Amino acid sequence: MTIANLSDAAANPSKINVEIFISYSRRDKTFVQSLCHALKQKNRTTWVDWEDIPPNAPWREEIYTGIIAADTFLFVISPESIASRECGVELQHAIKLNKRLMPILRRDVDAGTVNRALADLNWIDFQNDHAFDTAVEALIQALDTDLAHVRFHTRLLIRAIEWENRDRDDSFLLRGTDLESVEQWIAQGTDKEPQPTQVQTEYAITSRLAETARQKRETQRQRLALGSLTLGLIVSVSLGLVAFSQYRSAEARRKEAVLGEVKALTATSDGLFINHQEFDALIQGLRAAKLLKQASWAPADTRDRVLKTFGQSVYWVRESNRLEGHSSWVRRVSFSPDGKMLASASGDGLVKLWQLDGRSTIALKGHTDEVLDVSFSPDVQMLASASSDKTVRLWKPDGTLLRTLVGHQSRVRAVRFSPDGKTIASGEENGTIKLWQRDGRLKLTINAHRGAVNSLQFSPDGQLFASASSDKTVKLWQPTGNLIKTLSGHTAPVSDVAFSPDSQTIASAGVDKTVRLWQQDGTLQKTLYGHTYAVYSVTFSPDGQVIASGSADNKVKLWQRDGSLIGDLLGHSSYVNGIAFSPDGQMIATASQDQTIKLWKQDKSLINVLVGHQERVGSVQFSPDGQVLASASSDGTIKLWQPQGALIATLRGHTAEIYSIGFSPKGQLLVSGGNDRTIKLWQMSGQNSRLLKSWPAHSSYVNGVSFSPDGQTIASASGDNTVKLWRLDGSLIRTLRGHQSDVYWVTFSPDGKLIASASADKTIKLWKLDGTLIRTFSGHGAIIYGIAFSPDGKLIASASADKTIKLWKLDGTLLNSFTGHTGIVEGVQFSLDGKTLASASDDKTVKLWQPDGTLIATLAGYSGGVVGLSFSPDGKTLATASDDKRVVLWKLADLNLNALITRGCNWLHDYLTTNPNVTQDDRQLCEDTRPRP
């Protein structure tokens, strides 16, 4: 099946032959027959295995073809289908293809046995045969949701798989309007299901790169034509008018080609970013930005798109370099203790030494088989390598082979120096550990494990060493070889082991997809879940506050010491085998099956992500002096942070989601309100902050709370349609009635004389303190979620579900309406100097505006909608709260194109300078931008 034209996909749904693939248990065949008949009556086509597999056709292949061609994968849930191996195989294939899943419940099952991909969705109930027609209508309604998006996904998947099956033949790539349609679909569908698959994204990116190359060749041809035209103008004035017309036409084509290349590079950058390839996205974005800088005639919407896309990669990129030079997988990587070198061990039989800027300084040759581990001595005078050739070799850092340690009977998988450098421990596949003196003499052989020794690690205090084994255990030993403790708990081989810097905690990585944290006495402290495949490596940061783990899911996960997930480092295309922190903790090196080493920076100079909340963060607020940042979450907690991101305290007291918080003018008090219908008042005193008072406030949830400028009154907005004013002792001053629906926000004017409230009734109301309604502002077409006074009190900004921000005078005059968000606008905030307006949206972006409506920048890169905003008092930082459970601090200094280009060039300097695979064009990309520290 092929697609003639993708650009008309939404308009021509008849081109798809299959709409619904049905996966079911044979026990439910009669029901499925009835369902197919009902769907056919609704003009829906289905794929079922009793009628769609031709005789003698390869059965499994036909099943897979049916899933690929279908818009929706419908799974009939029953005890038999959940237990069925074949249904499970079909479901996994649909998940792999990012198909839209549609679960329907035929017979009740234990929810705990259902695949998470189905369990997390809404099930359509088909248990009651008497309500069959009603259930079918519900199914049809669900099938029609985002139908154009789903059908486009199917068409693109078919074409991408055809390209893949034809060995990625360039003749199958997208061009022209087809390519533009795909890029637009990817860009507009970031918050829709199904998401693009990897092969779809690679297909689009490869197509764009090919199209960009073609356009570049065309641009060069046009430039040659322009040169000929110029010569013609000199030679013949008599042909001037004709030549000038040709010149204008050629110049217009040149500009169109440049603009096309800018758009192409920007779309490619956006696609790479969406696919978690931020480093490559940065390179493509930098190319687009450099072209845009020369194209002063580019339209505003193109400039805005480039700034948004390039900016997101500049802010969010963490990969700083990639070391490419090995011809096989890289298993382990190690920083020298002085932080000046990096060593890597590879399946190509080499140990390579690298400078931190990415230059390969030397390759250590001598092993006759794969090198599986590498370790520096503490004094950096020696390097040890372990190999499948059954030897350990000791080297000088200049590549001189000092000696070869022989005696192992099988592959040597691990090697480590003791902290004092006097002992070398090596572990082999037959479970044996050998301890050697530095001069190569064997001290001790330990029959340690019943399975391969995969990793060895000495405690930093030198009192213990640990071994991790395929026998599912970690063992702790004295340096003399005496066994201290066996740590049992993993349900599969243990791949790696690491000590915390204080030697008190042991981390182990397992093929069972977990990282486990242990005390020295064998007590299991915590199990870290999150990886979806085997975990092959684990290590602590030098300060002991971060744990990094690498997995066969191609991800590096960073965890806080308490087990909270900080985030992922994404970019490897295969297993992450090894991880190492630099001695200063500012860099992470990862070794991968994809034959590369990646270097990642712990850089927080532009963006700082605060992780700790367990649910959506709904509100964030800087204290008046800027020394404390408070965040409130649906997990029922308030967290207090230092401006640099360190957690000060967690405040507990609410029994449900917290929707709003606000500091008193002097920052001594904090007020909060939420779904438990109470208002709580907190005393701010750092780690000793405490609850002062709590009172029931409304008959429905409290959406918004705000202090008056004199700090003596609290205003609250509620789902009970009212605004209430309170004294600090919790006594009610008065209730403001007038809104016809939920009130979502309330705030005082800077002079404290007025109160503004925003409601689901689509209006803003302006009140006097005595409760007198002054006026009602109408103009939004949907719920108003947020409002803010300008610092001078002369303007009100409002944020609405109609996707706009509006700016009003106090007399109700609408001054401006800002458009650009593609989702609900949840919040709006003025900077303290009044020169910038920030808006937060469900479209996963924050936009910064000038008061006249000019868009300054779009801050993107969130994985969930953005809800709350707060400018720091100095205006240099913007804090945001979002659905992805994070607080993000943005440094607002580098938002213009030139500053972003400088930042991008600085970040890429080492890679562009030293990587052997960089093209000459890219090598010169930043020649006019001098790197700076």
Automatic annotation (TrEMBL):
WD repeats lie at residues 323-364, 364-396, 405-437, 446-478, 487-519, 528-560, 569-601, 610-642, 651-685, 695-729, 736-770, 777-811, 818-850, 859-892. Residues 16-147 form the TIR domain. PANTHER family: WD REPEAT DOMAIN 5B (PTHR22847:SF637), WD40 REPEAT PROTEIN (PTHR22847). SMART domains: WD40. It holds the Pfam family WD40. This is TIR domain-containing protein. It comes from Stenomitos frigidus ULC18. GO terms for biological process: signal transduction.
